[in-house]
Specification:
Length: 222
């Protein structure tokens, strides 16, 4: 996202609304406190945890993060708006990140990006109507000798040619990692008690490899 200017006279969060961060998410953020000298230093881990749990970091979530870390909400917004990795609005089930840096560019990255846009029917930082894909570009993905590169969620696709794009998009497992994935920033599932008294697990939205689509969820809750 880009730098955001807010009208300070406008109420952007309902102070009476229910919290958006579950206790599990809060506990995971607190678990990082011991690692750093200040709570403020936990801001980036907090963004990862919240984004992995909810799919994006909404304004209410920013206010709750600020509360946990004992900093002002404006500092949270200032920080998150610097990083394109973090989303402040719903994104698709899978985020395609195409490299726009020089090595990939000279190997044809711009043509691959155009093919992606044409096939998905969306531009940069947009989401397909079915909520399946969002498309962004980033500077170097640190795999310059295998360009053009793109990420689908956390899976890297190397030496992508325009003619590969169709089969990559058609592959349901195009974001499945072949390596074990770190769960450092994943929020644990919430525990809740069912009517029978048994403990049930509520899967946290967006956690793990098979995240659900935030856009789809928003449509269903409308
Ligand atoms: S320039 Fe594309 S990965 Fe480095």
């Amino acid at each position: 996202m880009a730098w955001v200017t807010l009208n300070r006279n406008e109420q952007i969060c309902d102070p009476d609304a229910a919290p958006v961060l579950s206790e599990a998410v809060r506990a995971k953020i607190r678990s990082f406190f011991d690692r750093y000298d200040t709570k403020r230093a936990v801001l980036l881990p907090a963004f990862h945890i919240v984004q992995n749990a909810l799919g994006y970091v909404s304004f209410p979530a920013m206010v709750e993060i600020a509360d946990l870390l004992e900093i002002h909400p404006s500092e949270v917004l200032d920080t998150i708006s610097f990083y394109t990795h973090f989303w402040t609005h719903p994104k698709g089930e899978k985020v395609i990140t195409a490299c726009r840096s020089i090595s990939c560019e000279v190997m044809g990255g711009a043509v691959v990006l155009e093919e992606l846009k044409n096939r998905l029917g969306i531009g940069e930082h947009e989401t397909t109507p079915d909520g399946k894909y969002s498309l962004v570009t980033e500077e170097c993905l640190a795999c310059c000798d295998y360009g053009p590169c793109l990420l689908i969620n956390e899976k890297l696709h190397q030496r992508v040619k325009p003619e590969d794009v169709g089969s990559i998009l058609a592959d349901e497992n195009n974001d499945t990692l072949s390596l074990e994935r770190s769960d450092l920033f994943d929020a644990p599932p919430d525990k809740k008690t069912s009517n029978s008294g048994a403990e049930e697990e509520t899967v946290v939205v967006g956690a793990g490899l098979s995240s659900t689509s935030d856009v789809q969820e928003m449509k269903e809750s409308d």
